[in-house]
Design brief:
seven-stranded mixed β-sheet, single chain, Rossmann fold, 7 helices, 37% strand, alpha/beta, Elongation Factor Tu (Ef-tu), domain 3, 254 residues
């Protein structure tokens, strides 16, 4: 984990309220693993008080850069979107436990909306991967998945691009082709993905997105419920013990 002032290389809009930022940071880029995140301090003042956790979408070790894709949903992310090339951003990372990679397995990544972002680095690392990408209407980063995945399937709720409906419907049709599924997106979507995988005895890993305070497991802001070995329900920390969990362990209804 590093605390750095990172130079903004670019900060561009991809879709309505969706932006992509590239940061120069040799250390974080070198140490980052798929599924990890960074914690961003917006400015030097008291507001916003808490840092913002944002998943790492790409980590180019040879270039010393990381890419984040983020959704503007409040004052904090509005301020990030207003930053320009050459400005410096206060960043801590890489943080969290990322995805478990398996050799020789047939894999699929299933993303919904902004949840597609952390799956891109994973897709680059996997050797046998298909992508299932779901969006409400506007599609982004599609060409980057197509460049590294054997097959890329797209669904939009309004049918503007690809299949009209939910991406989980397409996954269910093809689930028997896979040994492992990785997913990130809205909880209802991830819950459905987990159910589909469980019904076909396919391993499934989910990336949770929760509001965080410290980002290192000290403040208990980002707790989620998991199944304990004793059969009971326990609380764990998304920032430290996740954000990636085995779908058999985490309670997506909580």
């Amino acid at each position: 984990m590093f605390s750095e002032k990172c130079e903004i290389i670019s900060n561009e809009q991809l879709a309505s309220k969706v932006y992509e930022m590239v940061l120069r940071t040799d250390n974080i880029a070198r140490e980052s693993e798929p599924g990890q995140f960074i914690h961003i301090r917006i400015n030097g003042g008291l507001y916003p008080l808490l840092r913002r956790p944002i998943s790492i979408s790409r980590a180019k070790k040879e270039e010393g850069t990381i890419t984040i894709v983020y959704h503007v949903i409040g004052q904090g992310t509005e301020e990030i979107a207003a930053m320009v090339k050459g400005e410096m951003l206060d960043v801590i990372g890489p943080l969290g436990k990322g995805f478990t990679l398996f050799e020789g397995k047939r894999c699929a990544v299933v993303g919904g909306g902004i949840g597609t972002a952390p799956l891109l680095e994973l897709a680059h690392r996997l050797k046998n991967c298909d992508a299932y990408l779901g969006f409400k209407d506007e599609v982004y980063k599609l060409h980057e998945f197509q460049a590294v995945c054997q097959k890329t399937v797209v669904a939009t709720e309004n049918g503007s691009i690809g299949y009209k409906g939910f991406i989980t419907e397409l996954l269910e049709q093809n689930i028997k082709a896979y040994d492992v599924v990785y997913t990130c997106g809205p909880k209802p979507m991830m819950r459905r993905v987990a159910d589909i995988c469980m019904a076909s005895n396919v391993e499934c890993y989910v990336s949770m997105e929760e509001r965080m305070g410290c980002g290192i497991g000290a403040c208990l802001v980002c707790t989620c419920k998991v199944k304990g070995g004793d059969g009971g329900v326990h609380h764990t920390k998304v920032c430290k013990d996740g954000p990636v969990f085995n779908a058999k362990e985490v309670l997506l209804d909580a």
